[in-house]
Write a structure and sequence with these properties.
With about 450 residues, the chain is α/β, with parallel strands linked by helices. The protein contains 15 helices and 17 strands. About 5% of the residues have low confidence.
Length: about 450
């Protein structure tokens, strides 16, 4: 935190809000961008840390942890729009700000808009990055609802997915440490409650009440965490707003490309010498992609098939099985991890493509059985998680669970874990809940679902 001293502001309902002040110059208040403790998370996140260091060179930078996160009170139940806006007011009163610059973004742009509309004349300039005005529209889609489902059911997996998809960390020890930092900064219950409360927010009517010159920054690329339509709505309704569309290959909300128009808007000269940390001092995350969707396939009664057909005849049948499986993997972008003799282990970076591949395999085997004397009945199990990658193989709990789920299926069936079902929510897949299954080696039962694949 760069030796910034922690202070505590008291909100209207008595909630303590932790805040820090650093730098010198005109006051600039930066709200959190996500639902996690800003002072712990952002200080270790590329892009955010560099941005805060630069802002502190030109402004007195004030940051705070949202209620329920970081160093602020965790034992809270009110995540309403009024309560969150009151937290901003409490920080402003605590630090004694005059006219200030206010920088916000993501889910916290709603309460910031509410605060600015209620305090005309206090904000000199406003920056909104990837803004949100109606979270139910921005975050109500299938992918975000699936992610929240993971937050409710598997907290560790959720934080790892957030580390990859939102903050840009990839596989390895650094990513796991960052996911652990998220779990230290916020509890599972508070993330779920804050998200559910935000579904009722709508600050559209307040946009025309914002008097300050406003810069709206929005990334061009599609991203489940960002709503381009919301940014365009803000820019069209705020009287003195301008919209900057930026391109970024990083999944993170704040990158160098997003910061450049903000610096220009705030009068920061990027060509001027500075004493920011060198790029080698700031960790840069590798490419994303540590979450795998894992498929195990297995030919039912393969031993009996060998006894019936003999080694040569059974090998002919299995060769057809291998050909069909590998063709499906190539078509749907799967990676063959290994052949298991009478089955395969494969990995996908997209759960949707994994399920499409499994369906294509079952349909191909069904069609093959209609045209030959000896049909192949395949059972498939699918799970998602972060396995350990080593020597072109995958290991760990996520892999073991996928194999155990496959063992629960009968020939011609595709069984998936509850995590996989939630990850593809909103897609055109049909499932049958098969209840909780006791998987070998796992203490707690796991809910499994059958994926329908018939035409």
């Amino acid at each position: 935190m760069n030796d910034a001293k922690i202070q505590y502001a008291t909100s209207a309902d008595g909630t303590s809000i932790a805040c820090t002040v650093r730098g010198g110059g005109p006051p600039l208040l930066r709200t959190p961008f996500g639902r996690f403790g800003v002072m712990g998370i952002d200080s270790q996140t590329p892009g955010y840390a560099e941005m805060d260091a630069r802002l502190a060179q030109h402004f007195t930078l004030i940051r705070f942890d949202a209620r329920g996160t970081g160093l602020s009170d965790r034992r809270v139940s009110d995540f309403s729009l009024d309560a969150l806006a009151a937290d901003i007011d409490a920080v402003v009163r605590k630090v004694g700000l005059g006219r200030m610059v206010l920088v916000t973004g993501g889910p916290h742009s709603c309460e910031t808009i509410a605060y600015v509309a209620a305090h005309p004349g206090e904000v000199e300039r406003l920056v909104i990055v990837n803004g949100i005005v109606r979270p139910a529209e921005s975050f109500g889609g299938g992918r975000m609802q699936a992610l929240q489902g993971v937050a409710r059911s598997d907290w560790e997996l959720y934080t790892e997915m957030i580390a990859y998809t939102l903050y840009g960390w990839s596989e390895g020890e650094e990513a796991r440490k960052f996911a652990g930092l998220i779990r230290e900064c916020v509890t599972q219950d508070n993330v779920v409650r804050a998200f559910e409360a935000s579904m009722s927010f709508d600050v559209t009517a307040l946009l025309t009440q914002i008097e300050a010159p406003t810069l709206v920054v929005q990334r061009v690329e599609e991203n489940p965490f960002h709503d381009r339509a919301a940014s365009k709505l803000i820019a069209s309704h705020v009287p003195r707003a301008e919209l900057a569309m930026v391109s970024s290959t990083s999944p993170g909300a704040f990158t160098a490309s997003a910061a450049e128009p903000m610096y220009e808007f705030l009068g920061i000269d990027l060509d001027a010498p500075d004493d920011l940390p060198s790029p080698s001092d700031i960790p840069v995350p590798p490419a994303t992609g540590a979450i795998h969707t894992i498929i195990f396939s297995d030919v039912e009664n393969s031993t009996a098939l060998t006894q019936q057909l003999g080694d040569v005849g059974a090998r002919d049948v299995m060769r057809t099985h291998e050909q069909i499986t590998r063709e499906a993997l190539r078509e749907y972008g799967g990676s063959e991890v290994k052949s298991l003799g009478d089955g395969f282990m494969a990995s996908f970076h997209s759960p949707t493509r994994a399920l499409e591949c499994a369906i294509a395999m079952q349909r191909a085997f069904a069609a093959h059985g209609d045209t030959t004397e000896h049909g192949i009945r395949l059972r498939i199990g699918i799970n998602a998680g972060e396995p350990i990658a080593e020597d072109d193989d995958l290991f760990g709990t996520a892999v073991i669970m996928a194999a155990r789920i496959a063992a629960q299926a009968q020939g011609g069936e595709i069984f998936v874990s509850d995590v996989v079902r939630m990850l593809v929510a909103g897609k055109s897949f049909a499932f049958e809940d098969r209840g909780e299954a006791k998987l070998k080696g796992f203490d707690a039962p796991a809910r499994v679902h059958a994926l329908r694949w018939s035409e």
